[in-house]
Amino acid sequence: MKKSAPAHFSIDTLLAERWSPRAFEDRSIEPARLRQLFEAARWAASSYNDQPWFYIVASRDNPAEFQKMLDCLVEFNQAWAKAAPVLAISVARTKFKHDGSVNRHAQHDVGAASASLALQAQSLGLAVHQMAGFDPQRARDTYHIPADHEPMAAMAIGYPGDPAALPDKLREREMSPRSRRPISEFVFAGDWGSVAPFVKHT
Question: What's the pTM?
Fold first, then answer.
């Protein structure tokens, strides 16, 4: 199912058609395509080229490992994410490699890497649904994540499936129109809350 963004201004089709489904096909992801996703993440921009991103990945091809990661999700997300062929958790290294100081940009940079991954997935006919709904401490304990690394988000990755397979409430969400705030609400110039001139004149 496609849910192209009703953009007010023209944007690239890849961006317009990227969204976060909860329905996935019962179909494995080819290893070559998984490599492409993480290669895209690899080439994201980062402060000092520090590349603070890490990903822990589990596939349904290995049921025990998949269940281990599924158990890190909140119950609501477990209910639908169990159908995805691949789960992952992104992790941010919170200190710079070159001097050990706190990298306050690390979360931003991991987000940029994950956005690159999601767009690469879209270009391959895959979908990524990123989730805040997971237990970071359980993930830390389960995977022995170092103290100076922070679990950031979980994600379900797979080929988009049929919304009819979802429970009623989730199917309603899946089918609902997409929406975003207009750019006039978040693009400022001169002072906080002052809408940028190029926005006001559109």
Answer: 0.94
